[in-house]
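ok so heres the complex, two chains, lmk if somethin looks off
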Amino acid sequence: MPVITDIRNAVVPISSEIANAYIDFSKMTASVVALVSDVVRDGKPLIGYGFNSNGRYACKGLLEERFIPRLQRADLGGEIDPSRAWDAMMANEKPGGHGERSVAVGVLDMALWDLAAKVADVPLWRLIADKWNGGAAKDTVFVYAAGGYYYPGKALAELQVEMQGYLDRGYRVCKMKIGGAPLDQDIARIEAALEVVGEGRNLAVDANGCFDLQTAIAYGEALKPYGLFWYEEAGDPLDYALQAELARHYDGPMATGENLFSHQDARNLLRYSGMRADRDWLQFDPALSYGLVEYKRVLDLLPEHGFSRANCIPHGGHQMALNIAAGLGLGGNESYPDVFHPFGGFADGIAVEDSQVTLPDCPGIGFELKSALIETLRDATRT
Amino acid sequence: MPVITDIRNAVVPISSEIANAYIDFSKMTASVVALVSDVVRDGKPLIGYGFNSNGRYACKGLLEERFIPRLQRADLGGEIDPSRAWDAMMANEKPGGHGERSVAVGVLDMALWDLAAKVADVPLWRLIADKWNGGAAKDTVFVYAAGGYYYPGKALAELQVEMQGYLDRGYRVCKMKIGGAPLDQDIARIEAALEVVGEGRNLAVDANGCFDLQTAIAYGEALKPYGLFWYEEAGDPLDYALQAELARHYDGPMATGENLFSHQDARNLLRYSGMRADRDWLQFDPALSYGLVEYKRVLDLLPEHGFSRANCIPHGGHQMALNIAAGLGLGGNESYPDVFHPFGGFADGIAVEDSQVTLPDCPGIGFELKSALIETLRDATRT
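and the predicted structre for the whole thing:
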């Protein structure tokens, strides 16, 4: 009958001198929570940790004002049950308006799953494979290196050094930002990156939602000859009509979804955006979107729209999504080898080979095997 | 060259023993902000006030963590300019995820408009009519009485007393909740209300987004014979396909939009929900949706989708929306005669006649003419 005895809530900076086409990250923050349980193992209480994925800010106020108090009052039936916790956290919340609170619930959901897997003494990927995937788990997960940000003074040569660094660390597929410079400059950047990564299928580009339709199509026309891995988030994430029209002009693979934070929003993307199951990618980030309990609802929607879990490569580059990818058979996961430290990346000593990574065999999400991350989580939430 | 010298941020309860079909309101809160200026009139600094509309919680953390600091640092060009303030407040926010932060920005936007109108020494409805409507302002605004909530032990006779109270105060059109009881009980409640308000065109019903398609249609079939004023928010606010399918079964007026908080979400409703400009109503609440700066973007979208401002009757029952309705020619405004005190309602001494209300002639939004409200705003933000 495990019980949560204490909930701790902290904010840490994940600021960085990078920028995408929409925002700069110099003031970015992340919430960290710790759920302390009454289960003692090796003389210490089991603790579940959660944090919020990058791109959205820490949600300390929301956690303190609504979601932690509700979780503290919740009756979880003597189990660490993330689904029951979810219902308790979302009680008396009106429908619609899926932003910010989806991050707060996602932080707590991550910590609940970490704790649940630790109580069960299994890795999270194993727990969810057994629970929802007939026990089948992937041995390796496809990962790509997300980078290629804009920052002051960055030249083409530096972009190439960055890309070479990803290849040196075992990545085959790399991603760079577009839309923060004029089209001709972005094309020069793309060609510089391709000199390093080789074929177009090794390079993805990401506009972070900054294009209007005309610009999105102009970029599409210019990108076509390269045969890129994907063309990501051309327009506003809610402008499904733009995405659908762009698909009539660009027949290469496209990707979007990182800024849709509920199954209702995901369903609208599937209904209206003209995304093509035979080539396109869905990037919903479970940590930003009310956690795995809600993400499972998204996965369950896919078949009726002709999509499968193999279409999903979540945004965020966190080990939570990596566990989900392995345990529920997603198409892969994002990775940030050079930014958002220490939240991105994998367990220490896990190597990437040909853009594939293996999962650690450690109870929970695996934070304890990544020394810089677990140190940050423990330091932030130590009383 | 007016300057904001201090920003104060407080939380007040607006709890009530009522419930709709989705949530109970016993723990509902509201944020209150005060923008203190260096403009002194009658010996006192002009202060702009803002608060958040009901149904969404106070957003104290978000205000403190991001939006007040950004507004404090903003260069408004020596004016109280809500549009420039908006850009500063939304800097480094990613697209998508329109919830919670839309409330925080809406609270500050309301206070900015209140202060801007006070500095100009005109009512807000006059300021915005001159700015955006060629000076044309409505003399009276249609208002309806929103009530008919569920609460423990409420019987049909009490619902009738409540409705009679609205008629006694000059309302012709009243609204009640449905979906919190089985269909047959709701029909009995509707018939009881109709005994008081008379014709079906005097009664609106509101399901607060709780129905699945089958239930929405079943209610639609049962409601048809009554010829109601409107059938509101049958399904999830983001389920545009449900709304479109329901429109094929229910040809009476429908209303929705209170839980869509951006022009992108509003545009999706207009694109995909099958709403009919000749009879349906759009209820976007400017206070919950990034304020009037964003609401103006919504209004500007309407014509290309065949709608006009006359289709708009905002949710929220606050004087901010009342000023917008008068100044920009909306179809009307919600009113809560009996709940959410002191935030709803009108200036003291303003009478409702045949569901029409006049606007006060007082600088700003008019809070100073509603004694219980201005006292609450001042008490909450007094240093």
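quick notes: Residues 41 and 119 of chain A are 9 Å apart (CA to CA). thats all i got rn
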